[in-house]
Amino acid sequence: MKITVDEDKCCGAGSCVLIAPEVFDQREDDGIVILLDAEPGAGQHAAVREAAAVCPGAAIEVSE
Amino acid sequence: MTPPRSVLIVGASAAGLSTAEALRRQGHQGRLTLLDAEPHLPYDRPPLSKQVLAGDWEPGRAQLRSQAQLDALDAEFVRGEAAVAFDAGAREVRTATGRVLRADAVVIATGLTPHRLPGQQGQAGMREPAGMQGPAGMREPAGMQGPAGMRGPGQQGLAGVHELRGLDDALTLRAHLTAARRLVVVGEGVLGGELAATARKLGLDVTLVGLGQAILADQLGGRVSGLLTRAHAERGVELRLGVAVEELTSAGGRVTGVRLATGEVLPADAVVVAIGSRPATGWLAGSGLSLGDGVECDARCRAAEGVYAVGDVASWQHEGLGRRLRLENRTNATEQAQVVAANILGADRPYTPIPYFWTDQYDIKIQAHGLPSATAEVSIVEGDPEQGRFAAVYREDGRVTGVLGWNMPKQARVLRQQHLATQPVATA
Ligand SMILES: Cc1cc2nc3c(=O)[nH]c(=O)nc-3n(C[C@H](O)[C@H](O)[C@H](O)COP(=O)(O)OP(=O)(O)OC[C@H]3O[C@@H](n4cnc5c(N)ncnc54)[C@H](O)[C@@H]3O)c2cc1C
Ligand code: SF4
């Protein structure tokens, strides 16, 4: 699995951090997403797909 | 319950498309059909009043998914065709062209229809004069064309008067704003505030009129809405708050201004009406479904056997709050979609989200989690309003009901986890 994030589309909701805190974080100053792990292990895949699905900015893209 | 062999989703925007994706992800292998009245490929609405209207984004950037991602869904998209009737018992949708679509499960995701001012309608079929349309390239964003012909209702009516719900509305408005000088925004809600901010950025003279005493007063309460209203005033927006619009004034079929109940006439060459919306349920009349403030669903987002509703149009019983709720925000569309998809496939999951919305106005980014209300007691827990960054906690009867970040998105999310974690977020 490979994850990319589009900072420009991120609205700082933090939904991704709530769902997959080991993969996503937010910047302190403006809340924009930080990708902690662009190629997470299998244990994270379901949570990452969930985060990409609910992200209100459509900012997270997942490719296999 | 056996999983449905076919699913039909009416409304292929944030909520409808997310439901389709979640169905596939959760294992639905049967037929999947998405019907939408608009000709465009699914696009996102929040950027319309922000990046798209400001001209910072090419319209195509608001597209929700790439063509390749849509293809991978293995779904049939029927675009530019409105549903006009529904029979809930037979799960049968009739479209404007007379086509009948039937499925084992039907999902209603038709969103909202903006309210209008009396007189806004004008002469049906009226269009912006050619000179107002801006560069040709603005009209049809690359990569978003569908079958031509379908125009949103926003394009009809008194010339120079706009509403903003869809992409076509945004492009028409943008073209007009690049030529206009004086804009009146009617409505002091989220959309009105964002429109005023974007129009100031474009250099227009902006007056904002609203019935409330402050911008977003109902949603954020006196303290924060007072700060937001001050921010607009400081950036040059003329405010007429706590006052009703009497009528739109016009000459030769084109708007010339807005007359207020006080008698004052605000001259304008462009007017945007952002006075709220109602659930788009007109096509469901006589369907057998219960329609109140939206499609009335149970706690599982089910409106009838095999019929579900999701997104702005759906009213459901929130078990955590013990009351009916309907939310008009972007996160709800995708979160509710996960639960609806699971329930269609046989799960029995109540939908109990912590509501969340954000709004961007000028350099101010507001994040609101939970249900901050006008009656709550507000305490600033981090930062300082005078420094332009703070986080606040809303309490009612001593219980935290909402948290808010003002240029503090991360801190707001952390506060949410500390104070609002009692209701689980919807996860698949
Ligand atoms: C300009 C704007 C800015 C916004 N900004 C924010 C923001 O900053 N933050 C936030 O949280 N939320 C924001 N929102 C709200 C957010 O966009 C909505 O909550 C979200 O789009 C809801 O998704 P939905 O799929 O339920 O409805 P919609 O996105 O409205 O989609 C409904 C779809 O149904 C189709 N449809 C309607 N009737 C029919 C019919 N009879 N037959 C077939 N198809 C039909 C429509 O064409 C449309 O594609 C904004 C909304 C707008 C309009
Ligand atoms: S969920 Fe999406 S919009 Fe929200 S912080 Fe994560 S990437 Fe950004």
From TrEMBL, chain A:
Which SUPFAM superfamilies does the entry link to?
A: 4Fe-4S ferredoxins
- The chain positions of domain 4Fe-4S ferredoxin-type read 1-29
Q: Which cofactor does it need?
A: [3Fe-4S] cluster
Cite a single GO MF annotation: iron ion binding
Q: Which PROSITE patterns match?
A: 4FE4S_FER_2 (PS51379)
Q: Which UniProt keywords apply?
A: 3Fe-4S, Electron transport, Iron, Iron-sulfur, Metal-binding, Transport
**InterPro entries assigned to the protein according to its UniProt record, in alphabetical order:** 3Fe4S_ferredoxin, 4Fe4S_Fe-S-bd, Fe-S_cluster_ET
Indicate the secretion signal residues: none
* One Pfam assignment: Fer4_13
Q: What does this protein do?
A: Ferredoxins are iron-sulfur proteins that transfer electrons in a wide variety of metabolic reactions.
- According to UniProt, the name of this protein is Ferredoxin
TrEMBL record, chain B:
Q: Which InterPro entries match?
A: FAD-oxidoreductase/Apoptosis, FAD/NAD-bd_sf, FAD/NAD-binding_dom, FAD/NAD-linked_Rdtase_dimer_sf, Reductase_C
Chain spans, region Disordered: 114-135
SUPFAM superfamilies in UniProt? FAD/NAD(P)-binding domain (SSF51905), FAD/NAD-linked reductases, dimerisation (C-terminal) domain (SSF55424)
> Which key words tag this protein in UniProt?
FAD, Flavoprotein, Oxidoreductase
* Cofactor(s) it depends on: FAD
Keyword Transmembrane helix assigned: no
Example of a GO MF term? oxidoreductase activity, acting on NAD(P)H
**Sequence ranges assigned to domain FAD/NAD(P)-binding in this UniProt record:** 6-337
Superkingdom of the source species? Bacteria
The residue ranges of the Reductase C-terminal domain are: 356-418
Instruction: Kindly list the GO CC terms recorded for this protein.
Output: cytoplasm
Name it.
FAD-dependent oxidoreductase
